[in-house]
Amino acid sequence: MLSGTVALCAVPAVIAALPVPASAISAASLRAHILASASQPYQAYAESTVNLGLPQLPDLHDVTDLLDGTTDQYVWYESPAYWRADVVTGTGESDTYTDGGVTYLWNYGSNLLTQVTGTQPVRLPRAADLLPPALALRLLHTAGTADHYTRLPSRRVAGVAAAGLRLVPASPGTTIGAIDIWADPHTGLPVEVQISARGSAAPVVTSTLLELTQANPGLGAVIPHPAPQLGMTTTRLPDVDGVLNGDGDGDHDGTPFPPALAGLGHVTIPGSPPGIAVYGAGFSRLVLLPLPSDIGDDAQNAAIQAGADTVPLTGQATGVLIRTPLINVVMVRAGFHHATFLFAGAVTPALLRSAASGLVTDLSRQRFRIHR
Q1: Are 55 and 64 in contact (CB under 8 A)?
Q2: Which three-class secondary structure string do you get for 297-349?
Q3: HSE toward the beta carbon, residue 171, CA cutoff 13 A
Q4: Contacts of 97 (CB under 8 A, 6+ apart)
């Protein structure tokens, strides 16, 4: 009995040590396979590690914890419209369900199931965004036509002889140096993703499937079945348009934002919440988010106390720079909107400073037009 148990326990190590056959698939074909893998069902246990060094900001503790540390989660994926991911911690778990396109969040500690209504093209990151299949697809869809792809040596991941693909962004404005993806060459399912910052060989983000079964879990595993005693509530994504509405003349086709910043054009994302602006394309894309004055002041103070730099902008304005190897953030309070404007993206601090200076200039012009 003991010898049989020892033998069974040794099986995973033996499989992992087996030579990995090289795959003849080309980089272009592997990329196409990965992009076509969204409908591939699977069940897995994943581990994601992110090391950004972000300070704790008010009302963003969950996000900063997610982007600085290790996240373990189980996932049952039936299709893009039906899946479930459970984050497991030492104190409990929190689950995310997508049921026919409707998102539900379940919290173990509060025993509460929350239905999220409203559009979600732009939102704060969740743990499920770090799962290798979701992360790889998002990165490949973000990539531009000038970005460069090459093959990497195959490696065994979660029992899969996975073929490797390296994506190197062409834009000089991004902090991303390389994106490495390993995927099943037959189904295209990504099993590991590593993101490295420009000028660094060590990955800042690593997300890996540790256990994997490429089988349909069935709808019963991915649809929430709340118990009678479970609390339920509904929430909408915040509408931040009120931060700016009524403070300006709302030019630029009804939006208070300029049509371009730092040489990056304003991008219209269908269904995105009003009041959030996106500029640029590919990996040089940045997000502009206005924060209410109280939250903005607290966030800037917390960033400064955590060691963030103050940076001069156009005129007398001063911004606060949170610098990490991959994601950079600039916050500035300017104009007559009584709001803090937050710029963020996997872009260089210089690009964010230029964008912030451009917004300060635009807001000053708006004020002059209104009060002259």
Answers
A1: yes
A2: HHHHHHHHHCCCEEEECCCCCEEEEECCCCCEEEEEECCCCCEEEEEEECECH
A3: 19
A4: 83, 84, 103, 104, 105, 106, 222, 223, 224
How many Cα neighbours within 13 Å face the side chain of 71? 30
Q: Which residue is it, tokens 């304003």?
A: 266
CA-CA distance, 352 to 347, in Å (whole number)? Answer: 7
What are the pLDDT digits (tens) for 213-236? 999 999 999 988 776 666 666 665
Classify strands 190-197 and 203-213 as parallel, antiparallel or unpaired: antiparallel
First-to-last alpha carbon distance for the chain, in angstroms, is 89
Cα 103 from chain centroid (whole Å): 17
Give tens-digit pLDDT for 313-366.
887 788 899 999 999 999 998 655 567 889 999 999 999 999 999 998 888 776
Give the predicted TM-score (pTM) of the model.
0.84
Mean pLDDT by 10 residues, the chain (372 residues): 48 57 93 97 97 70 71 96 90 86 80 72 76 97 96 97 98 96 98 96 95 95 77 57 40 61 88 77 92 78 84 83 92 72 94 93 64 36
CATH numbers and ranges of domains, the chain: 20-235 (2.50.20.10), 240-371 (3.40.1000)
Q: In what order do the strands lie in the sheet with 309-312?
A: 260-261, 264-267, 277-279, 286-292, 339-345, 328-333, 318-322, 309-312
